[in-house]
Design a protein that fits this description.
The protein is α+β, with helices and mostly antiparallel strands. The chain is built from 16 helices and 13 strands. The strands form three sheets. It has a seven-stranded antiparallel β-sheet. A three-stranded antiparallel β-sheet has the order 1-2-6, with no helix packed on it.
Length: 556
């Protein structure tokens, strides 16, 4: 299709790029379109690489476009069919707000649609569309952190339960406590022994690549993803059990370091092997594989052998475009230029990247008393063991003050760190509290409201949770509402806005909460007193964190 040709003027030996004249317009069309989304992809891929969960994405892109190169008929086509044009229209609908909001995540969605449009327009050697190769691209999209870690928590619970059963079978003495396996010699927190979502995402990516590589019927996609979920759990169970056995039988610690990484890759390889075996089993079914027709020898082969090659010319390619093709190209290029301009003019977020088990701010025991709020402090407790026994409501690192506000006694907790806003009501729900109401209470003079949630236990005890958050630079995170619309938008809002925690894969938020519980319903006056106190404590916290943040910048 394309070969370097030597100039024929006799005075120059430089090579020129030659291309069949019939494909110059399609090549130019798709090249400009993908260059238009490149500014979004650069920022998006950098964010993907910052998170271990998605570091498979280079292999994903290589697999999709590598298979497309191996299977296409050596001719590039312009968008054909209603589906390809609708995909380009959908891409533009995402790309325009992506440029306006400087959102690389929306740009990535546009890239996925454009990839589907491109592959759907190209043809294999048997004349059929390559659209099926776009299926693995769904794994290119970053999931909301809240949803990711919700799945991770469920996976950890399942993994811990199954590992405990397996340890009973092999005779290892232990006790299971939520996500912790308590051995005689030490406690193993499951997050230390497995990376549930990381292996799940990787196995799902491999499952979809195997699906399209083997040309399996696309109706089997849900089955392959479900099997990938099971094999990911199996791999993690093997990992956790192996770590416990190594510790208990051989006194070998493989919870950290190179040994920990190696056993993780070994278990991932075992899960991948089970996936390949499953695919071979599916291949025995007569309907499972898309039949491959014999290759056609129409215009495709003629292109390679024809002598219609000419020097590649942008002008020639543009002249071959119709107005309906120039318009989407122009819009996509303008969106790319807008993204570059806004990125160049915007200020770089200078917050440090913080791991999920680090402490952003170290409050003093008198921190709460210095907030200027009417709080009666009784005691202060510090918890800093992120992998040991921890209160599910308080997170990895917490400072707990037993105190009183107004006529109520309760607990005030500063817990950290979180990847953006953490919906603390979930932590109480998993402790068998039933949430009866959740309201975001606006306060005059404050940018963000304070959340008040009412709970009821099985034995009739009433609880009230008042909470808010502060980011690592002293700014307030956006407080999501609780309407059906807000619940849908809340997880994706940080993704759309390219929140620093989302793009850096780091923990940047502290959560503040005050918990009250009593046999009778808590009256509105006590709730308002707690809200007023929370506002003052939040202001004090933001001021202290901002001061710490500025001091850290001056020391760089």
């Amino acid at each position: 299709m394309a070969v370097p040709a030597t100039a024929r003027n006799g005075n120059s030996d430089r090579a020129r790029f030659s291309l069949d004249s019939r494909v110059q317009t399609p090549v130019l069309f798709w090249s400009v379109i993908f260059f238009g989304v490149l500014p979004f992809l650069i920022k998006y891929c950098a964010a993907m690489w910052n998170q271990d969960l998605y570091q498979y994405f280079p292999f994903l892109l290589i697999a999709v476009f590598g298979l497309a190169y191996l299977r296409f008929d050596r001719r590039v086509y312009l968008p054909t069919g209603l589906g390809a044009h609708l995909a380009i229209l959908a891409a533009i609908c995402f790309l325009v707000p992506a440029a306006m909001l400087q959102s690389s995540w929306l740009g990535a969605i546009a890239f996925i649609f454009l990839t589907a449009a491109f592959l759907g327009s190209q043809r294999a050697r048997d004349g059929r569309s390559l659209l099926y190769l776009a299926v693995p691209m769904v794994m290119f999209l970053r999931a909301p952190l809240l949803a990711t870690y919700t799945v991770m928590n469920r996976l950890q619970l399942i993994t811990t339960d199954l590992s405990s059963i397996l340890l009973d079978v092999v005779g290892v003495l232990h006790n299971q406590s939520t996500n912790t396996i308590e051995l005689v010699s030490k406690n193993l927190f499951v997050a230390e022994a497995c990376s549930g979502v990381q292996s799940l995402f990787t196995i799902c990516f491999l499952a979809l690549v195997v699906l399209v590589y083997q040309r399996r019927s696309l109706i089997l996609t849900p089955l392959y993803l479900g099997i990938a979920f099971l094999f990911a759990i199996a791999g993690n169970v093997i990992r956790v059990t192996s770590i416990a056995i190594a510790e208990e039988w051989f006194r070998v610690d493989i919870t950290t370091g190179l040994r920990h990484e190696l056993i993780g890759y070994l278990c991932l390889a075992i899960a991948a092997g089970m996936l390949v075996s499953f695919d071979h089993l599916i291949g025995l079914l007569p309907f499972a594989t898309r039949t491959q027709q014999s290759a056609t020898t129409t215009d495709t082969e003629g292109l390679v052998q024809a002598n219609a090659e000419s020097e590649f010319s942008i002008g020639h390619g543009l002249r071959g475009m119709r107005i309906g093709q120039v318009v989407p190209v122009a819009i996509i290029v303008l969106c790319g230029l807008a993204m570059i301009t806004q990125y160049a003019l915007s200020e770089t977020d200078v917050r440090p990247v913080v791991a999920t088990n680090q402490v952003l701010y170290e409050p003093s025991p008198s921190f709460l008393s210095g907030a200027g709020a009417p709080v009666r402090v009784v005691s202060h407790e510090v918890n800093r063991d992120s992998h040991g026994d921890r209160n599910a409501r308080h997170g990895m690192n917490s400072d707990v003050w037993r105190c009183g506000i107004g006529s109520q006694s309760g607990q005030f907790v500063l817990s950290q760190p979180y990847m953006g806003w953490h919906e603390l009501t979930i932590c109480y729900k998993v402790q068998n509290w039933t949430m009866t109401a959740r309201n975001a209470v606006s306060v005059a003079g404050e940018q963000e409201p304070v959340v008040v949630a009412d709970f009821l236990s099985d034995n009739g005890v009433h609880g009230c949770l008042v909470f808010s958050g502060v980011n690592s630079n002293g700014k307030l995170p956006r407080t999501p509402g609780h309407s059906p619309y807000a619940r849908i938008l809340a997880p994706v809002y940080p993704l759309i806005m390219d929140d620093f925690a989302e793009t850096s894969g780091s923990a940047q938020t502290l959560m503040l909460q005050y918990w009250m519980a009593q046999p009778q319903p808590i009256n509105e006056a006590d709730k308002q007193n707690a809200v007023d106190a929370m506002v003052k404590i939040r202001r004090h916290t933001a001021k202290e964190i901002e001061k710490t943040f500025v001091e850290s910048l001056s020391q760089r």
